[in-house]
Description:
heterodimer; A: 375 residues; alpha/beta; TIM Barrel; Arc Repressor Mutant, subunit A; 2 domains; nine-stranded mixed sheet; three-stranded antiparallel sheet; 41% helix; B: 598 residues; alpha+beta; eight-stranded antiparallel sheet; six-stranded mixed sheet; 13 helices; 34 strands
Amino acid sequence: MAGLYLHIPFCRQACVYCDFHFSTSLKYREPMVNAILREMELQKDFFKGETLQSLYFGGGTPSVLEHEEIVALVQKAFKTFRWAENPEITLEANPDDLSQEKLTQLKAAGINRLSIGVQSFRDSDLQFMNRSHNAEQSISCLQNARQAGFNNITLDLIYGLPNMDDEAWKDQVRQALNLGVPHISSYALTVEPRTALHHKIEKGEHRPLDEEQAARQFKILWEMLDKAGFEHYEVSNFARPGFRARHNSSYWQGRPYLGVGPSAHSFRAMHRYWNVSNNALYRKAIEKGELAQEYEELSEKDRFNEYLMTALRTREGLDLLEIEKTFAPEYSYYLMKEVEPVLGKGQLHLQNRRLFIPQEWRFHSDGIAASLFYI
Amino acid sequence: MKNIRNFCIIAHIDHGKSTLADRLLESTQTISDRDKKDQLLDDMDLERERGITIKSHAIQMVYKNGEGEFTLNLIDTPGHVDFSYEVSRAIAACEGALLVVDAAQGIQAQTISNLYLALEHDLEIIPVLNKIDLPSANPEEVKDQIIDLIGCDESDIIPASAKTGMGISEILEAVVQRIPAPVGDPDAPLQALIFDSVYNPYRGIEAFFKVVNGRIRSGEAVKFMATGHQYGADEIGVLRLKQEPRKEISAGNVGYIISGIKQAKEVKVGDTITAMEKPAKEAIAGFENVKPMVFAGIYPVDTEDFEELRASLEKLQLNDASLTFEPESSAALGFGFRCGFLGMLHMEIVQERLEREFDMTVITTVPNVSYRAYLKKNPEKEIIINNPSEFPDPSTLDHIEEPYIKAQIITKSDYVGGIMNLCIEKRGILKNQVYLTSERVELSFDLPLTEIVFDFYDRLKTISRGYASLDYHPLGYRETEMVKVDIMLNGDPVDALSALIHRDNAYDLGKKMCEKLRELIPRQQFMIAIQAAIGAKIIARETLSALRKDVTAKCYGGDISRKRKLLEKQKAGKKRMRQVGNVEIPQQAFLAVLKLND
């Protein structure tokens, strides 16, 4: 099983925290869509017999695309690759793009899952983040989406925001639950280099983020969602049974995926590929019939470490049998040796030959995974 | 003997000594182009990288002019204050010296102190103004400095550029014409001065010597007078590019001896070799047993590597006789070694060689000098303290003494104020201030050696923007007031972080140490209190907050490789940390006290 990711590198405006690749000028949208269509053609042999089970429109803001463009992209994807039955087709959307008409079109184009960038139900937060929508649009678009026939909907929420105390955060989670979505992705606000937020903090215009607050609000989040019947299946992802994101899960399960569009990453077996993060360079190459990408070959050690890092983000954790099957015996020995003190500290649990991070340590997943890395 | 010339090169670091040596070797065809490696005399990687000469060597050249064929022995000298005794012995083996001064930078403290050593031994000085081709060269002013310093004529100074080869033939001719031939009696009992030794893994220790009187013959029984050891002179010879065995080396000449010596410490620089049959009555004057000045603990990061560390130190000692070590243990770090070094540079070199040549990951603890303590119950008896853990209970202490040095600093007059402040802060006493020229000043201070150990060089360099050079000599011990400052992490003392500090500076340094440790210790899953204490009294505290978030919020396709690499780095860094109690301390934190002003 494999996945296809299409990167739509346009946004109406830049959010303060975002370090993904996008342009706020939509001038070259049409040639970009053509380039993405062309790249799919160039990559038609990327998968070696694997069938695809998910298509994901990410960005950027894919909801800036016109109906015809979405239809063309979906159809091209279907024509070019081999698909499993009932694939998951997700599109990331901003609330202000989701008019009733747009929702109907998306449905008609074959989109069956929406990922809505709500981020917050408070206008003051949205302004701080420089989002283009308001809280009311978030609520109404969710109702409209339901009416348009979407039931597989996820929304994004951000915590650890300045001026958001724990009570305000609880209220955010409550509102999300009231909307009845079956999936929530919730991220701690993070200061990435080369973002407006980073710049503001560096210049002292903004005080640094409060880690204690983030840790508290993470706990509030998983406790409330747990009570509401959600599975905390990945560090930042929660789903009601049967509603996990199939596409994103492939990233944490080491399944192959092809990323098309500028800055998109692909992974298959021993290699990772990444397209140039520049719209003009990307189009220029594709228009000449060339891929604008670099790649790296992953050594056994790289793959082992990546498996630890991604698998330990998930609720199920890593599978010791899988490790024995996939990697040389020394990796299993090494892991058992490294695991011992971590188990002792209660930061890892071992059950049915699976190692996973218990709920109370999940905010330390990176450090725990790193402590097991093969160096 | 009248056709032998023995000489050395006196120069400051980077003034072109090694390059000049290379040109001399080329010009006399001692090396062919094929053997040519830049800076041939420095053969340790580390030396080449740092541009300094750590171990001295000697090389013999044959020079022909209209008057005949001359044997020139160039004795290379180490270029750092830590090795001043070795320099003095190398100088004692020579009759002349090339004084190489950088035409852009002028005379530096190191050069002057070595020059004084050379003058004390009545060496003929040939001044060479090097790097004359540099655009920034200031030959007139530097010439004046040289004339002031040694009282020569302007015409005695040879302008040169070791880089381009300019002046090389003039230098060789001057060596022959101006430096006197050695004097000595080839028929007297053998007296050969050892000025250096190296370790050869296949042949054991090779000692380099100059025959002062008599002759040494291959195969004869010899005795090293200071150590009393006897050996057979299995092989003797001269030092061309490669060693060339000889049957006999007689008075005035320089050579090597291989006699089955296994350990460098058996060969003491400055010792006298004599023959068993017809031994000399007296040794050559000037021998000293070199004593380490600075002590620090060296511990393996991984406690299991203790034996391997011992083996590595033993191997290092084979060719570095001035390194001493003995096992010690620390509550925080387990088993390791208390090592003695000639100075701070020597300490750094040992640490680096351990890591590079022996692939050891080690922790070096706060260095200290050797103190003498006298207890109330027996104030006559001196107790030597080379380790803060040996510091006696203050209530039992009658008094304590610390080593002082005479420091000579040469700098531009603009920086005198700043340097004075630094030296006074470091408890220095100004002894003399001489204007060498209107712009260059020589300052002499009596300073406690311990203050040189604690970030003196770096600050001197910063204050003078690199335009200050330092040289020092031991002055003996003086009474002082030292206290032991302990560092505690979450209430547990970490003995490896303890330091002996003068009472007046203890509060200030304790505070700075806590601040520095707070910077260097990575945040961990719990809060860490960092405290400095004298006895039971806490004098400073810093708090390192707990790491509450250690996870990337988003980890999708594009984030995986980048994040994996980041975490791999983190794990590699952790391997270089030492867990003390439940706190992980990075290697460099143990030396934090040396970099308090960064």
